[in-house]
Amino acid sequence: MADETVEVSIAEAKAATAKALMKIGWDEADAELQAGIMTAAEVCGNNQGLVKMYNPVLMKPAEGASKPVVERDTGSSAVVNGNQSPGMVAASMAADLAVEKVKAGVTIAIVSAYNTCTSSGQLGYYVGKMAEKGVVGIALANSPEFVAASKGAKPVFGTNPMAFGIPKSDGPPVIFDMSTSSIALFGVLTAKAKGEALPDGVATDSTGEYTTDAAKVLEGGAIQTFGGHKGAGLSLMVELLAGALSGGAVLGQVDSKKSAKSWGHTIIAIAPGPLTDGFEEKAASICSTVKSSGDVRLPGEGSSSIAAERTAAGKLPIPKKIWDMIQKTGEEGLQ
Amino acid sequence: MADETVEVSIAEAKAATAKALMKIGWDEADAELQAGIMTAAEVCGNNQGLVKMYNPVLMKPAEGASKPVVERDTGSSAVVNGNQSPGMVAASMAADLAVEKVKAGVTIAIVSAYNTCTSSGQLGYYVGKMAEKGVVGIALANSPEFVAASKGAKPVFGTNPMAFGIPKSDGPPVIFDMSTSSIALFGVLTAKAKGEALPDGVATDSTGEYTTDAAKVLEGGAIQTFGGHKGAGLSLMVELLAGALSGGAVLGQVDSKKSAKSWGHTIIAIAPGPLTDGFEEKAASICSTVKSSGDVRLPGEGSSSIAAERTAAGKLPIPKKIWDMIQKTGEEGLQ
User: Fold this and answer.
1) What is the pLDDT of residues B163-182, one digit of tens each?
2) Disulfide-capable partner of A90 in A116, A130, A178, B314 (CB 3.0 to 4.6 Å)?
3) Do B240 and A297 touch (CB under 8 A)?
4) Pairing relation of β-strands B263-270 and B108-116?
5) Entry pTM
6) pLDDT grade, residue A1 (50/70/90)?
7) How would you classify the pairing of strands A155-157 and A77-81?
């Protein structure tokens, strides 16, 4: 948001964020988990980090929020009813449960989550945790209407991310986490806060024309999907697989997903062992061959190097306005 | 390839193709299945159709080709060892088996296929068949080195397609089938045959510079992935999930996937019922809301309307050179 940043120890950033989340109404377990996920995103420079605390009212418990429960449990699947708990809590539970099912013996398991009141943040976090346990993780999530299916169309999709976590033998997992929109919602919010222009052709105003003015996008405009008709198709697939398949709010069956407050998540875990031998070595071989094929950056390389540097230093830069807000919220709660 | 086309009845196109495939060495069952899949692709205007018969030597049985067998069979997974059978035969078997496993009671199943000697063609065909049985189908396939991970890099990926088939209550399934490359290999071959220029920025020559000359691309150049780093990331995910997870040839572990002749496929089937009620109605609601959000073409709409027209007429246009080659091969075999 502001350009001025402060250096804060990672432990302090996490503790202050947890304190702020408790002050706005979450219990200690839920506050710690959310603070851990947002701080982890911040550590790797992801735009789903502590910026979420800049407007803490968006992070407060919804009316009637309680703990997530598991429904429709089978050997290879389950559904987490978030009961308006935070997206991060429900998504963590879904990812853990999918891994458990695979560890219990099925080759592949699917666990969805719905009825959560906030965003699950950086999907790469969940699939990364899954891959650290030797399991291939795939996660899809839908979200409220911000993204249009074509230029000039009404927004219908969320930024509808998809993330993949792949364990490999020669180091940490490959984590690939992408939105199917051409720019993240937080990119638009940040551009507005900083008074910066958006790139050309990534978003439209309320009349359906391209604009580089973030404020106009937020006033009834729309973000575009990435990559032409392929990106639009992928966004629709995420809407179908994470929205309809999860039990979340369904376009056309609710007035809006935003007012229904039920984003959907679908998480798939795959144990490589039953399918092939030496999967992690194969994944490492593919990644190193691709890396050495030219001037190639593998998914997650940028964020891994940022994270390595910040973790070694034990501290990270936080925009001062956000850090002030986290500390103030920890003391005073919502204003 | 040539612009001149002939009108052929669909039944005759399929029968002549099957006859040509038998003449080059496939048995009746394998020939019928491949002819059916290629004719179905041609009927919906897909570029993985009868053009495959233009150079029939690429479709002939590999040395030692035999029937695919199922390995590593579990309740939720299996692996089809293609035994150098055609990709279409192994992929059909894998898709059928994934559906069977889901119908037998698991919510999700994964079946991969490897060791096939030819391309599986249009992946949308398999997921469409799965969705017609009420099952969500996802298919990924890798293929030989034609596509680079960045501009100027050596080709490492295939066109690495991903396809989704989603059943819905108000009509045929939504089928979304995309390559992760910015142009299909058959697009380059067709441009060369017709002497047409490629679009800007989709492919490079052997020096790593962009070219619109298809011949230069085929002489040591590379196709680019679509959609910037997101498309490159998706192509890598397909390489990992369809290449490494399937038992297919792995980059860096073989001299080349092309010479190893073992493309990989990974097929996932999901039964919606255990996860949510009314999935097909939800999918229909999402699709119709997206469709009416503006000037939007849903995935598969174009090919469905072409298919409807050609099916009603009972015939389809085939480039004369391809049709001549199919008929000649049926009489004389490979030259």
Assistant:
1) 999 999 999 999 999 999 99
2) A116
3) no
4) antiparallel
5) 0.96
6) very low
7) unpaired
